[in-house]
Amino acid sequence: MLRIAVQAKGRLNEQSMDLLKEAGVTVSQEKRKFLMRAADFPAEIIFLRDDDIPQTVAIGAADLGIVGYNEVAEKGLEVNLMQKLGFGGCRLSLAVPKTENYTGLEYFNGKRIATSYPEILRRFFADNDIDAEIHTITGSVEIAPTAGLADAIFDIVSSGGTLVSNGLVEVEKVVFSEAVLIGNPELPEEKMALARKLMSRFEAVRNGIGKKYLLMNIPVSSLQKAIDRLPAMRSPTVIPLANGDWCSVQTVVDENNLWNIIEDLKGLGAEGILVLSLDKIVM
Ligand code: ATP
Ligand code: MG
Questions:
Q1: Looking at ligand 1, which atom is closest to the CA of residue 69?
Q2: By CB count within 10 A, which of 61, 146, 183, 264 is most buried?
Q3: Cα(12) to centroid of ligand 1, in Å?
Q4: Residue 248 Cα, ligand 1 centroid: separation in angstroms?
Q5: Whose CA is nearest to atom 16 of ligand 1?
Q6: First-to-final CA distance of the chain
Q7: What is the pTM assigned to this prediction?
């Protein structure tokens, strides 16, 4: 049985639980406990603060964990980075008050920087020969410059709205992060086999995101033009219809290209166009 560590509450909890559910690892939504057995997969979920997930996996108290790459990089513990999960995207950036005249990294020499990610910042400054004072703060880092606690900050940025509302500008993007699946480096083979199964399910779920299944009837005379217009995993499925002048064409398309494709196909005489939602794509 696999033990999987997931953030108990916070930004990654919901999407982590959704991904697990889509992959066939479901736990009861009511009366959530600290440790819960999945109904349909040999796994149990342990709910933790995200800060504790890398260590829990490193020492083997959990076999796998779902956590932001930023936490993994900060802790610097020995865990396997097994898979990027495509959500929780953000970056760790240096930001300075917008009134400052920022000229480049040397700006930070002799400055005080507030952050909750001191190790990542220490490594970045060491690699770039910058000598700055790093102040570790666990609360709201973005208010440190206004409060006179620091000259600049190194913090998580996603939309940038928090920086703007605190009069700061992002000047260096240091690390890009998203949720990742991490694993204990010494998983026994039977757990590794379950982990691989889970990873291929996660991949199938991710492949289905933003995709639609498109079906339509096309006059045989326009078939080749329609096929040329369509993307397909191998090539579109073509099925003859009872009326020999027509056929049905079916394929998977990207949602953001959907309307252009539909309009072009209508131009080629397509009729009865159906767009179906799609759950998973197993390659
Ligand atoms: P915990 O109580 O588990 O310690 P937390 O307060 O440390 O939670 P959250 O704010 O829930 O953490 O964020 C969890 C993760 O979400 C971050 O470590 C990061 O990987 C990701 N994330 C994505 N966008 C943002 C953002 N705008 N601000 C903060 N974290 C973000
Ligand atoms: Mg945390």
A1: 20
A2: 183
A3: 7
A4: 47
A5: 11
A6: 26
A7: 0.91
Q: How far is the CA of 51 from the centre of ligand 1 (A)?
A: 10
To test the pocket of ligand 1, the residue of 75, 117, 156 to mutate (highest count of ligand atoms within 8 Å of its CB) is 156
Which pLDDT tens digit goes with each residue over 152-176? 999 999 999 999 999 999 999 999 9
Q: Ligand nearest 16 Cα, by number? A: 1
Residues 6+ apart with CB under 8 A from 46: 3, 4, 5, 6, 34, 35, 56, 61, 62
Pocket lined around ligand 1, Cβ cut-off 6 Å: 7, 10-12, 49-51, 68, 70-71, 88, 90, 156, 158, 177
Question: Residue 94, exposed/middle/buried by CB under 10 A (0-12, 13-18, 19+)?
Answer: buried
Counting every residue written for the chain, the total comes to 283
Contacts of 32 (CB under 8 A, 6+ apart): 47
Which residues are CB-contacts of 144 (< 8 A; sequence separation ≥ 6)? Answer: 114, 135, 137, 150, 153
Helix (H) or strand (E) holding 69: helix 69-75
**In this structure, what token pair is assigned to residue 22?**
């889509």
Q: How far is CA 99 from CA 104, 168, 194, in A?
A: 15, 8, 53
Q: How many CB atoms lie within 10 A of CB 92?
A: 25
Q: How far is CA 95 from CA 133, 149, 165, 172, in A?
A: 15, 14, 13, 7
pLDDT in tens, 202-249: 999 999 999 999 999 999 999 999 999 998 777 899 999 999 999 999
